[in-house]
């Protein structure tokens, strides 16, 4: 699954620089995650780094974007090969 940022986001800006894929950016009101770039840090780290640094715990799995670990690894390979 890709991750998502909920409206509990306080725009603290700690998640964006932690994303190794550049999937996090400032949205109109809160930060957003591009699901096409989010691999939950598979290929880079054991755990999603944005979740680790978020002070308000507002980065859950996106239930509409279910992906297996193998699918996330394939996405990682595609992203890093470019």
TrEMBL record:
Molecular function terms from GO: 4 iron, 4 sulfur cluster binding; metal ion binding
Electron transport as UniProt keyword: yes
One Pfam entry name: Fer4_7
UniProt KW keywords: 4Fe-4S, Electron transport, Iron, Iron-sulfur, Metal-binding, Repeat, Transport
Alphabetical list of InterPro entries matching this protein: 4Fe4S_Fe-S-bd (IPR017896), 4Fe4S_Fe_S_CS (IPR017900), PSI_iron-sulfur_center (IPR050157), YfhL-like (IPR047927)
Domain (4Fe-4S ferredoxin-type): residue spans on this chain: 1-29, 31-64
Keyword Electron transport among record annotations: yes
One of the record's GO cellular component terms: cytoplasm
NCBIfam families: di_4Fe-4S_YfhL (NF033683)
Name assigned to this protein: Ferredoxin
